[in-house]
Design goal:
177 residues, Jelly Rolls, seven-stranded antiparallel sheet, 1 helix, 11 strands, 2% helix, 35% strand, glycosidase, GH16 domain-containing protein
Amino acid sequence: MGSRRPPLLVGALIAAIAAASCVPGAWSAGEAAPVNATTPAAATFGDNFEITGAEDHVKTSADGQTWYLYLDQKTGVGFQTKQRYLFGWFSMKLKLVGNDSAGVVTAYYMCSDVDAAPQRDELDFEFLGNRTGQPYIIQTNVYHNGVGGREMRHSLWFDPTADFHSYSILWNAKNIV
């Protein structure tokens, strides 16, 4: 990534209808911490992340550890980290929208800078909505200097609406896994 700024970790719900507990659904606090940070154990989600989009579509658990995102037919909502990260283990717990969720895209991604388009670098997990009874699809992609073309789609072998599941990225100086 050369002299670019380290990436942001971003989550977004785009389209129409959602609720969960680990944003893109919703996300627990402290799951991604800067390598050199001294984040207190009792940090809340809001200490590390900021809402992007409709703030009135976010509810917080009583302990501040989980944010619930709600969508309607017109408004998307998301969040992004307040700090940037060079390397690390980034993990999100998601529970996807059940039933007929066609048109809903739940995205969990990292990008070099949200304002760097079209030249930004990006790692994507995109959970595509579906018609009732159809398999859920996760779509991944990697962009470098604005060039993607590495898109892959995978049918999930489990029900991502039944419970929260962890989705992780390990990013170090030599590999992205």
